[in-house]
Design a protein that fits this description.
Elements lengths: L8 E2 L2 E2 H6 L3 H18 L3 E11 L25 H13 L4 E6 L7 H14 L3 E5 L5 H10 L3 E3 L7 H7 L10 H11 L3 E8 L6 H14 L3 E6 L7 H4 L1 H4 L11 H14 L9 H6 L4 H7 L4 E2 L6 H4 L15 H13 L3 E2 L7 H15 L1
Helix pairs in contact: 2-11, 4-5, 8-11
């Protein structure tokens, strides 16, 4: 990573100035601009992605996450293909355009099993399939793409190599920042590609956050997911965050407002991306987190469709929100959107950037 932050301008001010901004009136200008840009560029539709957290097994030991291999206090589960397919049918019944198959970096997830699952979903439904399965081999990524997977999501978490290395013990033989190389592979394979960061990770400075934003721009992504770091008391980071934090005035806060700032800035700098109202953010503000996210840059919601008895076991951080437990909750969610004059999206909600790039490629191959 180069050491000079490019620090782009947003609404005539540097990104770092916005990150330090506290005045209500000034921030209102940022929220308004991000909300308006979202409506003008990606439109007023809010896309629903049905989230299926199908395995909480993980071989990694990220210092912040409750699913880390070293956490022996959680009960591990892996849904069967049949159980997953029942969730997929719920997504179809509720009119969603996409399912997101998410898991820890599960070592027992086989290439064939996953390929069969993706193939079946693509053959039997019109859904788009997003995979979020951690760092997988190039061969696996290739086969799952061939099976029909449309999108792949993997956060790089922080662009600061020192902070990254401290929080992510590597797998044997992996280079640090292997994820950046993998994101390139994922793009080359033709997936709609998503990445993102956590805001307020202990050790993350405001300068880091500017570089994170710069990297998000440079990666030229289809989806960007941004959520605050939430303390999990059963993790090394949660047990002793002070040990990892940087000096008070330099440390980025993991407050809701800081995350909205990053979301709004990213919407203005990468206007075409799909951006979810993340669960971590709506965990911080259950009452209005969805509304604030959708008016400050987000255009995607990811209701959890995992069978109820497993949801609490996917505990990357404690007290994860669970806005939709039954059909009544979905109705309430639709009503909340109506109040914002937003409507649920129809179809797969593809990335505009991806569609534009395909068109350009088609045109250049015709010429
Ligand atoms: N707080 C917030 N987000 C977390 N994640 C994992 N643990 C936490 C936490 N304690 C996020 C990471 C990871 C995704 C699966 O969940 O960004 O990429
Ligand atoms: Fe595993 Fe992902 Fe959690 Fe890391 S963040 S421990 S890879 S589930």
């Amino acid at each position: 990573m180069d050491s000079m932050a490019y620090n782009p301008y947003v609404l005539d001010r540097r990104v770092s100035d916005w990150l330090y901004e506290k005045r209500f009136e000034a921030l209102s200008v940022l929220w308004q601009a991000a909300g308006q840009t979202c409506l003008e560029v990606v439109g007023s539709e809010v896309h629903f992605r049905g989230l299926i957290e199908f395995s909480n097994h993980c071989r990694r030991n990220c210092l912040y996450c409750g699913l880390r291999a070293g956490n022996h206090r959680i009960e591990r589960y892996r849904l069967s293909a049949e159980q997953i397919f029942t969730c997929v049918q719920t997504a179809v019944r509720l009119g969603m355009g996409t399912v997101v198959l998410q898991s820890g970096e599960d070592p027992d997830l086989s290439l064939e099993w996953m390929s069969d699952l993706v193939r079946r979903i693509k053959q039997e439904t019109n859904l788009s399939v997003t995979l979020s399965l951690g760092e997988r081999s190039e061969k696996e990524l290739e086969h799952w793409r061939w099976a029909g997977a449309d999108r792949y999501f993997m956060r790089f978490e922080t662009s600061n190599l020192h902070v990254y290395n401290r929080l992510h013990p590597p797998l044997c033989g992996r280079k640090p920042f292997h994820r950046l190389e993998l994101l390139k592979v994922i793009k080359r394979l033709g997936y709609e590609t998503g990445s993102g960061i956590m805001v307020g990770l202990p050790g993350q400075t405001h300068e880091d956050l500017v570089r994170d934003i710069e990297l998000l721009i440079r990666l030229d992504l289809d989806m960007i997911g941004l959520g605050p770091w939430l303390l999990h008391p059963g993790t090394p980071l949660g047990r002793n965050p002070g040990r990892y934090c940087t000096r008070f005035e330099r440390q980025v806060s993991n407050l809701e407002e800081t995350t909205y700032k990053v979301m709004a800035i990213v919407r203005l700098l990468c206007p075409m991306v799909n951006m979810p109202a993340t669960t971590a953010l709506t965990t911080l503000n259950r009452k209005t987190g969805i509304e604030l996210s959708l008016t400050r840059g987000a255009n995607v919601i990811m209701p959890d469709l995992t069978p109820m008895e497993y949801r609490k076991l996917y505990e990357i951080y404690p007290a994860k929100t669970d806005a939709c437990q039954d059909d009544g909750d979905f109705k309430k969610l639709f009503e909340r959107l109506e109040k914002l004059k937003r409507r649920p999206g129809t179809g797969p909600g593809r990335s505009m950037r991806h569609a534009c790039n395909l068109k350009t490629k088609e045109c250049s191959s015709q010429n």
